[in-house]
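Mods, move this if it's the wrong board.
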Amino acid sequence: MSILYLFSFQSSPTINTKSTPSPFTLPTPPAYPNWSIEHTKPLPYRPFRYGPKHHITMGMRKLSFTDWFELDNHYPSYHALKASRIASRGEKCCRTAPKALPAAYEFLAELCEYLPARYPTLFRRTETGIENIWSEETFDICTRPLGEDPMQMAARLVQDDLAIMIEKPDGEYYLLAGAVLLAGFWKLEDKFGMSLSSIHTHGNVPQFKEKLEKGMGNMFRRLKCEEIYGRNNYYVQVDDGLAWAKSIAPEDAKETYWATAGKSTSVEGYHFRSERQTVRRLPRSGAVVFTFRTYFVPLQEIVEEDYVPGRLASAVRSWGEDVAKYKGKEVYEDVLLEFLDRKHREQLDRGLDMSREDEVHSYPF
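Not the wrong board. Structure tokens:
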């Protein structure tokens, strides 16, 4: 019997939302072809474009439900880091408000259906939930109360950070459940309970009011259960902290942003940080689920890839003043651009044909 079927009888959503429960059921995905916890490499997302202009848009594109979660051979290290963060920081990183519990239970039930189908060598369905074959962990999602916060439990299953937004009577969506363990630059405890708009204004997202707020609000209101969308972003990080960018400030400091960081003098330790985000609506509760998968690669690795150093240098130069401030360009631009330009010249000197780039790469790769 489907866990989702059991869930529909055990948990009646009581969220105050304008969304009407939908009969939609998450499609069963095919197994990932030849997936291996040892050999399946992370997808090489390189979501930056040539200048001279940097256009600020939501950048959403339709995805297939098959690709909701992407797991790879970095799973063991992500799993271990998440477990360590949960043990040391607990509710600072993982939390579910009472109003969001039905949505969190629904989300967890969907994971228990999706993951064993998509990654059958890693997960196995059980009568009460799911088993991680590799780690030998079992998760009971049926007994109430759960053994731990539902978002925390979900976080142990995937490489992504997770967030659930709940619509309130004012029509705004609020962050009322999350497991944010590897975000690098922001903390769940700072954003928890905020509206979607407040999260972005509080985070000083460039041109949010002018170019993004209206479109984002419309998207949330119109988002259908039958749809899933994704987007990618990227940053340059001047240290090796996947969970937290320690170069900007200690994690528990009051001020934790680029303004607190010192100027960088070497590309040693630089990392290319890219998020692959997805957004979809849960059918029963009407809540909106965000996933944030961080890809974290040493800069000195990606500059060996054809076309990457030249394209990244052009993209960084194209940032407007507000985007540059948001991404901390002042901290690293001199060192970074000199390095990227040098690596680009090396590629040209060995005969790289720039006219063939479109044949080799397409966004967001």
